[in-house]
Amino acid sequence: MSKAPGIDVKKMKKTLVAWRKELLTLIDSGEETKTDTELDQQRIGRLSRMGAMQQQAMEDETGRRREKELQRISTALNRIESDDYGYCTASDEPIAVKRLENDPATPLCITCAQKAD
Ligand SMILES: [Zn+2]
Prior knowledge:
- This protein is mainly α.
- The chain has a domain at about 10-85.
- The protein contains 4 helices and no strands.
- The two termini are about 30 Å apart.
- It binds zinc ion.
- The site of zinc ion (ZN) has 8 residues, from α4.
């Protein structure tokens, strides 16, 4: 499949690679924060069990969201490599350039994204 018209694939790739790097850094630092929190709790002993559980749940949720983003980014990068980037994975229609600039990792055109909702 040829490259979608009007899309600066090189720029998109750069954005996606930078985004992935940022996420990986965040995931790494997130794990360190968790360890720090545990140490603080032992030291202070004041954080309620409920508060600690809520915080843990929030960190888990953030982690899951980041893993999902990473997955989306990797898939988008694969599509760039195979020259499928810029086309909807569901309908093969070109994805609007504005939509890609807004979310470079999106695999769906606006029509399919609305159906998915
Ligand atoms: Zn579509």
